Amino acid sequence: MTVRTPTARPRRAGWPKSRLPMYLVLIVVGLVFVGPLYWLAASALKPTVDIYRYPPIWVPFHLRWANFSDAWHAAPVGRFFVNSVLVSTVATAVELVFATLCAYAFAFLRFPAKRVLFLVLLGAMMVPGNVTLLPNYLTISDLGWVNTYQGLIVPGLGSVFGTFLLRQHMLTLPDAILDAARMDGASHLRTLVKIVLPVSRPMVVTVGIVTLVTKWNDFIWPLIVTNSNNMRTVPVGLLLLKSQEGYNNWGAILAGAVLAVVPVLVVFFFAQRHLVAGLTQGATKG
Amino acid sequence: MDTSTVVSRRSLLGGAGAAALALTTFGCSGKSDSGYGQAKGNVPDKYAKRTRVVLWSAYSGTPGTTLSALAQKFNDSQDEVYVEVQFQGTYDQASQKTAAAVQAKQIPDLVTFSEVTWHRFYLNDLLEPLDGYFTGDFAKSVYQQQLLSEGVLKGKTWWLPFARSTPLFYYNKTLFAKAGLPDRGPADWDEWYGWSKQLKGLQASGKQVKMECYQKVDGDWQFQGSVWQWGGSYSDGLTVTINKPEAVAAAEWQRKLIFDDKMAYMADSPTTDFSNQLVATMVTSTGSLSTAVAAAKKGGWEVGTAFVPAKARQVVPTGGGGLSIMRYATSKRKKAAFAFIKFLADPANAAYWCVKTGYMPAVGEAVNDPQLATLLKANPNYNVAVQQLAKVRKEDEVRLMVPNSNVMIYTGLQKIWSDNAPVQGVFDDVASQLTKATGQVKAQIEKHV
Amino acid sequence: MASLDAATARGTTKGTRGGTTVESTRSGRGRGTPARRRRRYPEYLLFLAFIAPNFLFVLVFAYWPVIYNGYLSLTDWNMLAPTKDLVGLANYRDLFTDPDFLATLRQTVVFVVGVVVGSMVLGLATALLLNQRLVGRRFVRTMAFAPHVLSGAAIGTLWLFIFDPNYGLIRPLLAPLGLTSPPWMTSSRWALPGLIIVYLWKSTGFIAIVYLAGLQNLPRDLYESAALDGAGSWRLFRKITLPLLSPVTFFLFLTTIISAFQAFDVIALMTEGGPGTSTTTLSWFIYQRAFVASDAGHAAAAAMIMFVLLVAMTALQARFLERRVHYR
Asked: Which Gene3D superfamilies match (chain B) (predicted)?
């Protein structure tokens, strides 16, 4: 492959070599990533016989929307949906408030052991999810919160990465803005709400969306902490759809997967810029 | 959990902030005297004033909707008890959930355990003996004798038969006809093996039709039958015997079918593959009968069933689910839970359950109920399962009693089925794991059995 | 989950850096007149009030579990019995003499190395491709990144179907080449490679995008002068692009290792550690011990081993970063 770095400028667009091979590679790469998602959507709409047919039907003409209602009947997917939306939005909102307060404190307030405290906060990132699983379950049980919204939401409220991103962003704000606020005798809370937050909006949105998507996708914790359909979330529901008396009704299972994937894809396509910014943050600046 | 840990954990929480401590104290309220609360859920307003019974179920699909229908019927048939069915996944997942619930001290009242999983709770003194709940108009004798006896230990009844099954031999009549095979089950595995040769060349969705496939997860249940048919056992009492020649020969037979004859394979879901005519025969639970019959009707072919073939012996294990009441539920809830058990054992309801699902009639009288009687007459497939009851045996003790032993056995089987691993070596490893696990619970078992 | 994992490690990288560089420029602010110093006490309190909610949850749900887990790893407890028996280091001894656990460690290494090397190479190649002025590259970039944000549970479900040797997508794709689809998830030889493929699909797009950002930040004049010297594109790539990308490479290397270590959802949906124990990685082992086998002690011990491994890797990362700061 010809390697041209960085991005070739317009005057190089007419590079003499044929670009055909590169387009072929681009198409293959595109197919690798789009293919499975297309296959998911197509299969979720096929009648049962067609799902199991060989050679396969590449473009389904007989659409069977009933796969979705099958998924719906096998498990109350609608309720799972409501739970997922509720849990991820409330948790994200609360986490954002905590993260913003904390980031502001680390960025603008004085405290003797500030650096150490910040390192303590960052250190929490090293704790793998699987280490916290059992002890957190025991804590939530002690609180009597198994199979409740509190139980689903509370253990995830601590924000480390979000706080970190927000703090880094706040440190880049020009001192002049803050000094002006202080001259006016504005309190810190007022400064935060009236001045820092508005100018940090892009970063807050980024952190919010990354958090939202992470929480929507969360699987193992909701699996462990919920027992009844009125509390389960979409990813957990997927696992339950799968265990049907030794028989895999792929139509319903894949329809369930579509329901889990579509909201995230919608958010992704609309907020791609923010997600990419959030997830690649830190890698390239430095 | 012992008190000292609670205290230390509480104080640490307290150290983390007054708020956390306050939350902890708050969280402790709402539990009963025994310290155990009831699993949370959702009760429709209509039933709000009744005694709520939480049933943790392992049934989805057709059995799931059937159980819900029965619960609904029960709830509407009286005005004191509300049964809330909460689906928890497979039997093993339901058991894991129940263990976690005991830990959280928020327990269900009634659980559908498998023939394996109830023992774990019995050994930890978490189940309620049910004998005292039977009354004049509802005697233990309504249950099929053999199935009832499997839930009895130390002279008390802990687990009542409900969704009981045995492995059944299924075959695709249409494929059999195409291959020129007779329309019946084989007398023994050797005849079956001869038949497998005749399938050669038969294609389904572009592939050679295989003779059978083995179930990846939980296949150790069907294999319990194979071991016996070959004259061996998983264990003799609590002595592990899975690495003895007979059991090894049974697995070697399957290994050879997969890797030498290429007429079998390990499958994620044998029922799915059988339903799509990829395999001509399968040995699986009677509970899959309705699914297979429905799939055959859709696909335009016919299902036949027969006794599982013999080798040295003709014998199959029982299995499936039963009902237990959790000891630490309040006595009011335990009584209410038993009322639902009684309801399920009513011949008409028991027959409805069997007709819908294909599980064996655990209540003797159910066979005489018109709906089941008609079905048994009209569809001989259902009758085979009932007749095969004469050939059943209770499973080997180690698989039943030693926690997690079923996982150890099927993990070993997976190695043989998927990896062509030498059988003796795999079973020696499994045997040493089983022996070690048995050692850890031996004292507990001896005290309780 | 994976997005969080990746995010997690990334934050650590930058934190070390941000903490040293930016902090020093700001610390001057605090030193003022005695009068201003007296005014600080309310500010200290405010600081504590602002960080308290976040710290409370971090301490209770991230740090406390580590401590408690350490205690559990010294006990024998079946999660049903009312008591936990202290057994000292027996659980650790058991693990290191258990052939299944040692196999688990080996499989974890195979999985992590497969995912890390595979996704880095493919990710860089994809980034180089997307850095060309090609029509449609924005679309491909979007689609390549999409799997990274999808739920592991859904991806596992989808790929379980794709890999199905009878009904899946791989079979008709291989058929024209005269190949039959391997049994993938029902084969102990193919299941682990299959899982690696799924993770490559999930994470390559993310790596490509980070590399792409790196590529677009490279100084162009360097290339122009090198090109004038007559260097070919492969030489340019090796002598200029790769070395200049090394910070990005290093960062991606560690984040991918850490997230691959914690891979769970897809394994839970697709293989449950099987067939046999062929896809049991450390993270599945911990879950299986705790929640399937109800063996809290060994689960906790395995979790501590995993924690120590991750801390060691992060420490290593910090060391390397320090060195890098020096020579830059």
From this structure: Periplasmic binding protein-like II
